[in-house]
Amino acid sequence: MRTSENNLLLVANWDSSTGYAWRLMEGFWIMLAVHWCQAGKEAYLVYPSISDIPKKIRVSSIKVDAIDFKRGDITSLLKQYRYIADNQVTTIYLSDYPGYYWRYIIYRLAGAKHIIVHNHAPGMRSRPGVVKRLLKKLAYKLPGMSADGIIGATDYVRKRNIEIGCAPEAKCYSAPNGVAEQMDSQAENIKERYKIPVEKKILVTTSRANKYKGIEFALEVLAFLIKDRKVNNLHYLFCGDGPDIDSFRQKAAQLKIEDKVTFAGYVKNVYPLLLSCDMAIHPSNGEVGYSLSILEYMQAGLPVIVPDNPSVCGATLDATDGLIYKEGDVRDAAEKIEQLLDQPELAREMGEQAKKRIADEYMLANTHTKLLEAVASIIK
User: Are 234 and 278 in contact (CB under 8 A)?
Assistant: First the structure.
């Protein structure tokens, strides 16, 4: 029998149909809700707006409502306050909110005892100066204004929360992102599907079609290989959709390599596709230490080429399961790709090492365990 107190509130930042950005989070919400409901409590999930609720959420034990927690006007704050109070919520689980925030005082007045922030924000941050650092540390000491726990999506993010965000180390946790086990997946014949010549090696990237992901850099690298290094056995496959996809197509046309590039758009199940590729490049300007895409490449047995940006290359062991190039250096990135083209046995060995590391270190079940441990520690 469920009680009507000590309930959990899960807060989404996007419309309910924005599954692309929230696939991982949906799994976390469901896992936490199961944990709460097994203890006889209720779990609530609020979206800023509701259109199409994902099936996994619909069939779960989560109660779904539309309340926009991103809005800060008086009317919205009153709605947030009433929702927390009326549903007797004592634990709030937020994604990518600040470590300290004046609104947390309002949430605590409504009845929240534990505010947990799960930080997935990508990229590097500038180290604050002396004065800003002191102010940040002071903010964490103000009564009721700071989160009770901040969970990093990787160890890199946890360290960033401490060193750049100036959060107290005792409040910082890590639940490193992982990938789900793949069951009986068969490679898809992507050369036939996308009309790619059979003799070509396939270099792949899967990401949101956003310039921050560095896709234009990858196109420049491909153009350099074709024009300056006379490489003629390589084809680039980009899987993803987003606001800058047309800019990427224009860039390929400007570089006169459009016949060497396939823009596949959004692919719902990318793993069978990756199994037919030869190597991957992830030229992003920032991640959370690594990205789920990088883990998916590795799981499919692909050697991965990444920049030496610490927010991107954290899952890659240079010359063991992938290659790391100097960020922004077209020639260096091209040389790494050419090395794998010229040494297929090396590429195969790196791919096998990548698969092993995923199985040993980066499975989603481990992420869930670490998240539950962190949440349990915070609410104690």
Answer: no
Which residues are CB-contacts of 296 (< 8 A; sequence separation ≥ 6)? 179, 206, 270, 271, 274
User: Beta strands of the chain (E only): which ranges?
Assistant: 7-11, 43-47, 63-66, 89-95, 114-119, 149-152, 172-174, 201-206, 234-239, 261-265, 279-281, 304-307, 322-325
Q: Report all structural domains of the chain as residue ranges with CATH numbers, in order of start.
A: 7-178+364-379 (3.40.50.2000), 190-361 (3.40.50.2000)
Scanning the structure block, which residue is given the tokens 């609104």?
A: 103
- How far is residue 198's CA from residue 48's CA, in Å, rounded to a whole number? 47
Is residue 254 within a helix (H) or strand (E), and if so which, with residue range? helix 245-254
Q: Can you tell me the distance from the alpha carbon of 114 to that of 208, in angstroms, rounded to the nearest whole number?
A: 33
Backbone angles phi, psi at 265, to 5 degrees: 75, -170
Question: 0.70 exceeded by the pTM?
Answer: yes
Half-sphere exposure of 359 toward its Cβ, with a 13 Å CA cutoff? Answer: 9
CB 260 within 8 A of CB 203: no
Q: What is the mean pLDDT of each run of 10 residues along the chain (380 residues)?
A: 76 82 84 94 96 91 96 96 98 97 97 97 92 94 96 97 97 96 86 95 97 98 97 97 96 97 94 97 97 97 98 98 98 98 97 97 96 96
Is residue 65 a contact partner of residue 46, using CB atoms and an 8 Å limit?
Answer: yes
Asked if residue 299 lies in contact with residue 271, where contact means CB atoms within 8 angstroms, the answer is: yes
Contact 341, 231 (CB under 8 A): yes
Kind plus residue range of the DSSP H or E element containing 368: helix 364-379
Residue whose C-alpha is closest to residue 316's, from 287, 342, 338, 339:
287
Q: How far apart are CA 43 and CA 352, in angstroms?
A: 41
CA atoms within 13 A on the CB side of 119: 28
How is residue 195 written in tokens? 């009309």
